[in-house]
Structure formats: C-alpha cells, structure tokens
Design goal:
With 71 residues, the chain is an all-alpha fold. It has one domain. Helix content is 85%, strand content 0%. Residues 24-71 are annotated as: Disordered. Residues 45-71 have a biased composition (Basic and acidic residues).
Length: 71
C-alpha cells in the first residue's frame, strides 16, 4: 500500500467498491436461485405424462362401465 494519503484513500475506495460489487452479485445470485423453478428432467416428465394418460384412460373406462350398468 502507498504511504501517501491520497494513494491510501484510493486503495480503500477501490476495496470498498470491490466489496460492494461482490456482495451485490452474491445477493443477486442467491435471490435468483430462490426464485428459479425446480428443474424437472425429461425422464420424470415422460413418466408423469404416461401416468396421467393411464389415469385418464382408467377413468374413461370406469365411466363406460358405469354407463353400461346404468342402462
């Protein structure tokens, strides 16, 4: 560090600015990660879609069976 007061002041100012930038980026990154939705893999989506499709097919089948019994 420099011995003159102006050099020391500028070094301190640079250090403070660096610290502010670091803290802002750290806060921004943590804030973004909280807001970011959970990533779902393609395999999980495919399994969920197939499960939903099977449930809808089973429900439709139950409705047809119920209609046959009602008639």
């Amino acid at each position: 560090m420099c011995l003159t007061s102006t050099c020391a002041k500028s070094a301190i100012r640079r250090a403070i600015e660096y610290q502010k930038r670091r803290l802002e980026s750290e806060y921004k990154n943590s804030k973004d990660s909280r807001r970011r939705p959970r990533q779902v893999s393609a395999k999980v989506r495919r399994v969920e879609d197939n499960s939903d499709r099977r449930k809808r097919a089973a429900d439709a089948k139950q409705q047809r069976i119920q209609q046959l019994h009602d008639n």
